[in-house]
Specification:
Layout lengths: L2 H8 L3 H9 L6 E2 L5 E2 L4 H13 L4 H13 L4 H37 L2
Helix pairs in contact: 1-3
GO molecular function: DNA binding; DNA-binding transcription factor activity
InterPro entries: DNA-bd_dom_put_sf, MerR-type_HTH_dom, MerR_fam
Organism: Nonomuraea aridisoli
């Protein structure tokens, strides 16, 4: 599929897809006219990258994960990085849960005091 279609299906901009290629996160083939062509599997891969970005991982982190994403195997360094990222995300979730509880308390308080 062409880059515009991949952007549409994955919910990212064409510019983001070009950036992913520059970072080595995404591969394309080229038509004789030089247009990028992607495999259908690129849609899910880009969506997964978006989730990782949303969780705070960087392009560098994602690039380090590519071998284990593709092979299902990790080395000690990758496992350490995965645990560190998981711990960071869990801490953020805990913090957000605390904020959510506080907001619920404020909502309850304002219900009783118009």
């Amino acid at each position: 599929m062409k880059i515009g279609r991949l952007a549409e299906l994955s919910g990212v901009s064409v510019r983001a897809l070009r950036y992913y290629e520059e970072q080595g996160l995404l591969e394309s083939e080229r038509t004789p006219a030089g247009q990028r062509v992607y495999q259908e599997s690129a849609v899910e891969r880009v969506r997964f990258y978006q989730q990782l970005y949303a969780a705070g991982l960087t392009s560098r982190h994602i690039a380090r994960l590519l071998p284990c994403i593709d092979s299902g195997h990790t080395d000690a360094d990758q496992r350490r990085m995965l645990r560190e990222q998981r711990d960071r995300i869990q801490a953020k979730m805990d913090e957000l849960a605390s904020v959510l509880r506080r907001l619920d308390e404020l909502i309850d308080l304002t219900r009783t005091h118009p």
